[in-house]
Amino acid sequence: CAKESPSTPPLLLNRFTLAPQNRLSAKVFSEIQKASLFSVIKNKGTNITRKQNFIRRRDQLRQSIQEAYTGNPSPRILIAYHDDADGVMSAKITQTALKNFGSVQNIEFRSFPAFKDTDKKLKELPLEDYDRIFILDSFWAQKLFFQNDLTENIKKKLIVIDHHPSDLTAEELEETERKNLNLINLTNTGYRGESKHMPASAL
Questions:
Q1: pLDDT of residue 25
Q2: Rounded alpha-carbon distances, angstroms, from residue 59 to 1, 65, 141, 182
């Protein structure tokens, strides 16, 4: 775990540079366009369902964040993210988005490697003390909603955004719907393409 920084996140964006457009092949741009949640596709019914799923998840997430800021102008928020380019960008985008709700002065950042036992490091943190807990671009995080050593109160604070193929069962996915748990992944947003074309930062 990286040490938290109370004011400045450890997001060294200058380490990552985007390739100029003329250096990317037409095939790559075609795949990116196909990956868009709002791309125009021939099957309009599928497009509508995909868009509706995404909007419903977005509105649910917005409500959860708004509740954290209700009566608390500076809630304590943890943003945990995978320590690669996609995870870093996801964390930065999340921080920027939270400015629309209120203060971001009480945000802590933690970066994690992509190891299966990383959830143990997360659980070493005082999770009950946070008002919301974002976990971004981490394949192991989707299972946190179903681990018995986390209280229901913590699970309600969790916001997991991940683009890796879900290994949740159909029953578990249905439970996230029934309990209005804040899980945003490729499956429940209606995306059907390859995960490499839809990064967590895009979700």
A1: 53
A2: 31, 10, 21, 11
